[in-house]
Amino acid sequence: MHVDLDTLATALYVRIDDELKASPQLSPYRPKVGITPRITDAELITVSVMQALRGYHNESRWIRYARKSLIHLFPDLPKQPGYNKRLRRLTTQLAHFITVLVTDTDLWQHPIRIADSTPVPCGMSRETVLRSGLAGWAGYGYCASHSRLFWGLRLHLVTTVHGLPVAFALSNAKTDEREVLVDLVSLQPTMFHHRDGLILVVDKGYRDRDTETWLNDSGITVVRPAYRTEPQRPGRGLLRAVRQSIESVNQTLKGQLDLERHGGRTITGVTVRVLQRVLALTAAIWHNWHTGQPVMRSLTAYDH
Q: Is residue 118 part of a domain?
């Protein structure tokens, strides 16, 4: 089946609209007396996904393009201030629809998960650090993969081998990865359960006896690199085979979806822009699965 951005947008809009109608509590409160928005929340979320897939990290440029080229799909697009304001109010809904799309496929039932984190820089200068609205949440961290220091946050991801995000979190750059992983498993136990037992593949940053014991007690088998002082662990071949998958997911988020150029300056601004990109990746995999595409994580059909 041929796929393109328009077919993805149509399918995504229908799925989100159906979910909003089935769960009216997801819709933001609006007074009965006042001006009714001309564009629905389902349409706005769909437009935000299209923005991420097309690589427009600047909202003003995106709205100028969309009001000219997407008028056949969304005739009532707001201007940039209205678009930004509405999108920031839909943070909870963006997170919810990531889970909705994930569980609308069979991919999330795969018995292997992969965990990793990637930097989300939020500033480059000392002045930004001192005056930023992110002060107190963002912090200085080190990215070993690229041997660089950065100021910002970390996006923690747990995905399937297909690259489908099943759990995620944003944290201070210095927050221990093992603590975040335990929180993700505790808060979303259904995403870390398999009837035959779940296998979690991690890198050396997650090595810790207490954490591994806790995960084992939760029915999760940890596959990780061995310490120099211990013998080779089971699953060495699996570790080599699938570790590249999560690295590729991080590169997709940073390369095609411009994660590091999010442009957020406040807690809500950064959160909604990161969710926007995770939802875009999830939507592409979801649509590829439903249309029978050979490569689940390919965004090529949607970025032009």
A: yes
